[in-house]
Design a protein that fits this description.
The chain is about 25% helix and about 25% strand. Helix 2 (about 75-90) crosses helix 3 (about 100-110) and helix 6 (about 250-260) packs across helix 8 (about 315-330). It folds into two domains: about 10-155, D-amino Acid Aminotransferase, Chain A, domain 1; about 165-330, D-amino Acid Aminotransferase, subunit A, domain 2 (D-amino Acid Aminotransferase, Chain A, domain 2, Alpha-Beta Barrel). It is built from eight helices and 17 strands. It is globular. It is of the alpha+beta class. Bound molecules: pyridoxal-5'-phosphate. Pyridoxal-5'-phosphate binds near residues 249 and 250.
């Protein structure tokens, strides 16, 4: 057991803080090198690097937790590796092999063990694997060289003082084009969402809810989280569309709901009209950072659609899902085989 850093874990927010080591591997002449752990947090690349000119980059996000019995674990890292593979293939980037990817996660977590928050502190070590084009391109084409890195940073509970329901609004801009890049974790999907998120905040909303870009009638997701709805009879409803980013949290919650909690789950196209018609009792946004953020109301061009769960607390179904998933991650509830990846 290494000695933990002297950090006030409970006061951490969701911010970057430099830790001791990061994993770095370079792709050159058609092959990845072995990769190293380094204390150098600086990236030095040519001014003409593909990432700087044409945004050839993608990323992932996952966390390392300390379980109740003192193990350091990550949650389904193989799915992050697979998803980055899909992102790379869509962006003409070289794939970092899935097994090596998971090994790199293990290495960087072990090297930063002192930064993995203790059990019960509410904090975790956030891991940010990412890849970018590092060699020069001036004509529009993929670069020849790439860098894959994993940085780590301790983060606090996403919600300080409990998960207060948020207000989201229907966006008049689109997040993803039909047949575009919405289903992969490309940095460019976030660059073009920054105006919308700032505009939402300027107008007093927490997040944007994007509808399907072709017809603007069906619910897709928010800028960085998938949507989960609960019908009045307790059925979980998950919007389905080829331009939604396949959230690992959401996929896990679906399994938990149907296989562990015996809930009914529908994965299908969801018309926004169903919200207008008052079909839903609860709504939440899911992703690694927040697990589930409850949504209290949705603003649609002048009209608020309130969830019966209200603006004070999570609804009971979302609370149950939240408790079960975090229980699995923290080792107090047994989850499906292979979900918890023990590192130490
Ligand atoms: C990363 C991301 C999510 C959440 O995915 P998780 O695997 O659950 O962290 C949802 N939507 C978008 C657009 C994302 O980029």
């Amino acid at each position: 057991m290494v000695e933990k850093k002297n950090i006030d874990w409970s006061s951490l927010g969701f911010n970057y803080q430099k830790t001791d080591y990061r994993f770095v591997s370079n792709y050159k002449n058609g092959a990845w090198d072995e990769g190293v752990l380094t204390d150098d947090d600086k990236v030095v690349i040519t001014e003409c690097a593909g990432v700087l000119q044409y945004s050839q980059s993608c990323f992932e996000g996952l966390k390392a937790y300390t379980t109740k019995d003192g193990h350091i674990v990550t949650f389904r890292p193989d799915l992050n590796a697979e998803r980055m593979k899909n992102s790379c293939e869509r962006l003409e980037m070289p794939v970092y092999p899935v097994d090596k990817w998971v090994e790199a996660v293990e290495k960087v977590v072990r090297a930063n063990e002192a930064w993995v928050a203790p059990y019960g502190s509410g904090a975790t070590l956030y891991l940010r694997p990412y890849m970018f084009a590092s060699s020069a391109v001036i004509g529009v084409k993929p670069a020849e060289e790439y860098q894959f890195r994993i940085l780590t940073t301790p983060v606090g509970p996403y919600f300080k003082g409990g998960a207060k329901p948020i207000t989201i609004r229907i966006s008049d801009y689109d997040r993803a084009a039909p047949h575009g890049t919405g289903h992969i974790k490309a940095g460019l999907n976030y660059a073009m969402s920054l105006y919308q998120i700032m505009d939402a905040h300027r107008n007093g909303f927490d997040e944007n809810l994007y509808l399907d870009p072709a017809t603007r009638t069906k619910i897709e997701e928010t800028g960085g989280a998938n949507v989960l709805l609960v019908k009045k009879d307790g059925t979980i409803v998950i919007p389905k569309s080829p331009s939604i980013l396949p959230s690992i949290t959401r996929r896990s919650l679906v399994t938990i709901a149907s296989d562990m909690l015996g809930m009914k789950v529908e994965e299908r196209e969801v018309e926004f009209q169903e919200v207008r018609d008052g079909e839903f009792a609860e709504c939440g946004l899911c992703g690694t950072a927040a697990v589930i953020s409850p949504v209290g109301r949705i603003f649609d061009h002048g009209t608020y659609y309130e969830m019966p769960s209200g603006m004070e607390a999570m609804g009971p179904v979302i609370q149950k899902l939240y408790d079960t998933l975090t229980g699995i991650q923290m080792g107090t509830i047994e989850g499906p085989e292979g979900w918890v990846h023990v590192i130490d």
